[in-house]
Structure formats: C-alpha cells, structure tokens
Write a structure and sequence with these properties.
The protein contains four helices and 22 strands. With 220 residues, it is of the alpha/beta class. The strands form four sheets. An eight-stranded mixed beta sheet has the order 4-7-10-13-16-19-21-22, covered by helices on one side. The chain has a six-stranded parallel beta sheet with strand order 5-8-11-14-17-20, with no helix packed on it. A five-stranded parallel beta sheet has the order 6-9-12-15-18, with no helix packed on it. β1, α1 and β2 form a beta-alpha-beta unit. The longest helix is centred in the first third of the chain and has 16 residues.
C-alpha cells in the first residue's frame, strides 16, 4: 500500500477519495493519510472528518512531514491546481482511474490525473499532468489535453482536439472535432464550441461565442 495525501479538502477532494476507494476495492493500493489544505472552510473540515479522515494542515507542511508519501492535487480550479503543482512538482503525484472508466489503447496519462466514474477516453489520446475528468466526461480519439485541464461532468471533447494548459470545459459542453482551444480558456456549461478559441477567453452559448476576455496567464 502506498501512502497518499489528497491535496485540497473541498468537494472534488472528496470525489477523488471516492475514486481512490473504488481502486482499493478492486486492488488495495493506497493508504490515505488524510487531506492537506492551506485554507479549508469549517464545512470542508467537517465533511472530511465525516469521511473518517483528518486534516493534516497546510500543503507544504503535510508533504514535508510525510516525505515518502505520494499525493493527488484534488482542486477543481485549473488555475489553482497549476499553482499548487508549480510549488510541489509532479514527481510524487499519483494518477487514479476509477474502475468504471474506459481508457482506450495507445493512450498516455501523465502524473497526477484523476479519471472519475463513467469517464471515457478513446484511443491515441494524451492527457497532461494533473488532468481531471469528472464523471461521464468523454475525450475522443487523437486528442491532446495540456496540463491542469478539467472536463466537468458530461463534457465531450471530440476527436483530434488540442486543448492547451489550464482549460476548464464546463458540464455538458461539447468541443467539436479538430479544434484548438488556447490556454486559460473557460467553456461555459452546455456550450458548443465550433471554432478555434484564443487563449484567456470565456466561451458561452450554442454556438459558443466569446463572453469575456481575461488577462490571466499562468505557468505550471
């Protein structure tokens, strides 16, 4: 059993615990030491305790106190996840795939990724570090997702799509085949992206149009 710390204490952190527990039910793999979060809410701490786990303190202190442990950055925001990864690196990061998820042949998944229940990843796909595929998300053939990309529940990325770093694809949204989505883009829930998207925009609607442009630009 490998010691594991879940970084974050919010909702997705507990969903990540669900994935870890499902993995352990098939083949005991991880010993969860607890959750680490720099600024957890009182409600988050209560819900972590309700799951039978403890808050280990801030992220840096928890990882220093357990140097042999691995970790998962279970923070939903791509921006915040990338910032944590820049602090702690990826060498100790674990990848977890729910037993009910489907991963096709010749697909690579980099360190730190979380593939939730019912997600489907097709063939010849590349997922970058700290990718999150929420329940029911779909990634089509030959697509490439950069680091710290999130697909929310039911999102669909069609075949041969390139998505750059720190992109959030909203719940039930669709990215059509062959498109390129620039870094730091947010695709709103239920949007349909029909054209390439430049970096640092928010897309909403059907077909998706630029709603806002942000000045954020982050490196991981």
């Amino acid at each position: 059993m490998r010691e594991l710390i879940i970084l974050g204490a919010g909702g997705f952190a507990r969903e990540t615990l669900d994935v870890v527990e499902a993995v352990n039910a098939v083949s005991p793999t991880f010993e969860v030491l607890g959750f680490a979060d720099d600024a957890p809410s009182a409600l988050a701490l209560e819900r972590v305790a309700d799951r039978g786990h403890r808050h280990l303190g801030g992220i840096d202190a928890a990882l220093a106190a357990h140097p042999s442990s691995s970790f998962i950055i279970a923070v939903g925001s791509p921006e915040h996840r990338a910032a944590i990864a820049a602090r702690v690196g990826s060498d100790r990061a674990e990848t977890v795939v729910h037993p009910s998820a489907s991963v096709g042949s010749r697909t690579s998944i980099d360190n730190g990724s979380v593939i939730c229940a019912g997600a489907l990843v097709s063939t010849n796909v590349r997922l970058g570090r700290h990718t999150h595929l929420n329940p029911g998300a779909i990634v089509g053939h030959d697509s490439v997702l950069g680091d710290a990309v999130s697909l929310n529940p039911g999102a669909v990325v069609s075949g041969d799509v390139r998505i750059d770093e720190r992109v959030l694809i909203g719940a039930k949204s669709v990215v059509l085949q062959g498109l390129h989505i620039g870094a730091d883009v947010t695709v709103g829930a239920a949007a349909c992206v029909t054209k390439d998207a430049p970096p640092r925009v928010t897309l909403v609607g059907v077909p998706a149009r630029v709603h806002t442009t942000t000045g954020k630009s982050h490196t991981s």
